[in-house]
Amino acid sequence: MELYYMISVVSRRSALKLVEICRELSMPMTLTNMASGTAKSEHLSLYNLQSTPKAVVSTVTGASGMKKLMRLAKLKLYIDIPGNGIMMAIPIKSAGGARSLDALTGGHIPEGGKPEMQFEHELIVVVLNEGCSDMVMDAARSAGARGGTVLHAKGTGTSSAPKFFGVLLAEEKEMIYIVVHRDKRNDIMSAIMRDAGMASKAKSICFTLPVSATAGLRLIEED
Q: Are 92 and 4 in contact (CB under 8 A)?
């Protein structure tokens, strides 16, 4: 079975179109989260621009659906042109039983074996205290990251969590998604933990997920 968790970061206007594309492809579960970009304020001021609100659209599909979704996103949203968003496919290793699988696939079990496990890109996920995204992104950029997307979240940690993490997970949090080439992963994660880790105000933790296919990362790929 070949199944992918698709994550797309686009403008909020494009998110409506992307959700409609997912409907056209009969993808049964599509989720939308509000987010924001990480362009530095001085860069925005230099070009007389405002920060563009973002949305993260996620869905689950098989290999065929993944290819169709990427193709339509390129045709209708021009997502392969830098600045119009990014899309990534993360292979799903397992599902929580037959009912979960039916809900994710609409009862249509995708064919194929396990996804190819050779990854050029990875998704760094950073969990941090609210209001510290600039600190994290400054650290990430110092090691070669091009940009990221901030999602607002709320922790639901147990009362024992502070003993292990030194931070109440029930506080308001932010998450940052940063897509990187695998060769830069270690340097970027090390910089984040050094400059914005648990000893800092951000109290960041981070981990990576494999990305088996991408769209909209042309500048990163050319670099």
A: yes
The string of pLDDT tens digits covering residues 153-193 is 765 554 444 544 454 444 678 889 999 998 999 999 999 99
DSSP secondary structure string, 154-175? Answer: E----TTHHHHHSS-TTSEEEE
- The answer to whether the CB of 55 falls within 8 A of the CB of 10 is yes
Distance between CA atoms of 167 and 130, rounded to whole angstroms? 12
Q: Cβ distance 173 to 154 under 8 Å?
A: yes
Q: How far is CA 17 from CA 6, 177, 183, in A?
A: 15, 22, 34
pTM (two decimals):
0.72
Q: 100-109 — which CB contacts under 8 Å span 24+ positions?
A: 103/28, 103/29, 104/3, 104/28, 104/29, 104/60, 105/3, 105/28, 105/60, 105/62, 106/26, 106/27, 106/28, 108/62, 109/1
- State the Cα–Cα distance between residues 139 and 193, nearest whole angstrom: 9
Task: Convert the pLDDT of each residue in 100-135 to its tens digit.
Answer: 677 777 777 666 655 555 678 889 999 888 889 999
